[in-house]
Amino acid sequence: MNSDHCNLASFVESGNGDLLAKAGPFSECIADARAKGYHTYRRVATEGMDHRVMILDPETGREREFIMLGSNNYLGLAMHPKLIEAAIEATRRFGTSMGGPPLLNGTTTLHRELEERLAAFKRCEDAIVFPTGYAANAGAISALVRKGDMVVADRLAHASIFDGCRLAGGTMYTFRHNSAEHLDLVLREKAAAAGGTLVAVEGVYSMDGDLPPLPEILDVAKRRGAVLLVDEAHATGVTGRTGRGTVEHYGLEGQVDLVMGTLSKALASLGGFICGRKDVVTYLRYYARSYFFSASPPPASMAAAIAALDLVDQEHWRIERLWENIAYLKEKLRDLGFDCLESRSAIIPIMIGDELTCRKFSRRLHELGIFANPVPYPAVPKNKTRLRLSVMATHTREDLDRANEALEIAGREQALL
C-alpha cells in the first residue's frame, strides 16, 4: 500500500459488503505513511500544552522540545496556575465525575455558575453547557429544527453544524462562503417550501481563519424571518475588543439569536455552550439529545473555565499580546511569499495545494522542531491542502522567529517560495 496516492476519502467505501473490510487497507496506508515519516498525527506530549512542549519523537523514541504552533490554547491559559488550582479545588470538593447527565444528577453550583458567567460574557439571557463544542452545535440544531424546517449554512461551516443538520428532521442547504447575497437568494428561493429557518455561520472559520460579514448576514436573516446561529468556537477569548467574539467585534451583542462557543480553546478547559434567550435555553435542556443523554462535564472543567473567564477580564494584556504575535508572524510569512489567505484571526493557514507536498512540508517542520498541523482533503477541498498555524499570546519573539526560519527552509525545499 503506497500512502503517497491515498487520502482519507479513499477508505470510506468498502465495496464488498463487509463493513470492516476498509479498516485493513487503511491501516496499511497509515503504516506506510508512518514509515516514511509523513504521519504527523497523534504525536504524544509528555507535558502540558504551552508555547513550547516536550514531544515523544516517534522516530527516535526520545523526548524533544517543539515550538507549539498547533494548539488552540490561544491565550496560553492551559498551564496557568489559577486554572490548575481551581480545577484541583473543584476535584477535592466535588470529585472527578458527576456520574450522570446534567438534567438528572449532573449539575453542581459550579455548572450553574459557569452558565451564568457565560451568558453575561456573551451578553445573553442564559447559557447551557454541553460536554463538547461538537455536542453543542449538533444538539442545539437537531433540537430546534424539525421536519418541514430548513437549515442554510455557510459552505465552510464546521462539521458539527452539518452533522446537526443531518440529525435534524429538516432540509439542509448551503450558501457560498461569506456571501450574504447568495444567502438571501437561497432563502428567497427555498422559503416557500420551509417552515422555520435556521442560518448557521462561524464567527471565525477554522480552516481559513477569516470572519463572516456578520452585519450583512444578520440583516438578511432578519428580513427573511430566519434564526441566526453564530459558532464562536475560535472567536471566544480572541476576537472583539474584550475577547467576547466576532459578535462583539461587529457591535451586534444582543442581536444574534444563538451564540455558540467552546471552553476547549481560549478558555483552556473542556466543553461547549449555547447562549441565547432564557426560554430557548430551557427548551434545549429538555430537547437537545447530546445534552441530556451525555454525562455532565466534570467539575474540574467548569472551575477551570470560570477561572479563565476571570483572567480574560483581568489580564487583558493577553488578548493584546496575542494580536501583536498574530500581526508579527503574518507579516513575516507574507514577506517570504506564503499564501495565508485573508486570515483575520489567530489561525494562519499556509496554502500548499498538493497533498504529498503538504506531507513532506509537515515532516520537515517536525524535523526542525516546529509542531504544526497539516490539513488534507477531505477536511478541505481537493488541491487546497494547507498547514494550519495557531498563534498563542505566550509565544515569544524567539519562538516566532525560529518558526519563521523553519518555515522558510521547508518552503524553499518544497518549492513553495
Largest sheet: 7 strands, mixed
What is the assigned CATH homologous superfamily of the largest domain?
Type I PLP-dependent aspartate aminotransferase-like (Major domain)
The best one-word shape is globular
Helices and strands, in order, run as HEEEHHEHEHEHEHEHEEHHHHEHEEEH
Instruction: List low-confidence stretches.
Output: none
CATH topology of the largest domain: Aspartate Aminotransferase, domain 2
* Distance separating the two termini: 31 Å
Q: What strand order characterises the main sheet?
A: 4-10-9-8-7-5-6
Helix count, DSSP H or I runs of 4 or more residues: 14
Tally the beta strands: 14
CATH architecture of the largest domain: 3-Layer(aba) Sandwich
**How much is the average pLDDT?**
95
CATH class of the largest domain, anyone? Answer: Alpha Beta
| Share of β-strand residues | 15-25%
Question: How does this structure look, described?
Answer:
The protein has 417 residues and is an alpha/beta fold. α4 packs parallel to α5, α6 (180-190) runs parallel beside α7 (214-223) and α13 packs across α14 (397-413). The protein has helices at 23-35, 81-94, 109-121, 133-144, 159-167, 180-190, 214-223, 246-249, 278-287, 289-292, 299-314, 317-336, 355-367, 397-413, and strands at 44-45, 52-56, 63-68, 126-130, 150-154, 171-175, 197-202, 227-231, 258-262, 272-276, 347-353, 370-371, 373-375, 385-390. A hairpin with a 6-residue loop joins β2 and β3. It is built from 14 helices and 14 strands. It is globular, with a radius of gyration of 22 Å. The two termini are 31 Å apart. The chain has two domains: 3-12 and 29-74 and 317-413, Alpha-Beta Complex (Aspartate Aminotransferase, domain 1); 81-314, Aspartate Aminotransferase, domain 2. The strands form three sheets. A seven-stranded mixed sheet has the order 4-10-9-8-7-5-6, sandwiched between helices. The model has no long low-confidence stretch (mean pLDDT 95). Helix content is 40%, strand content 16%.
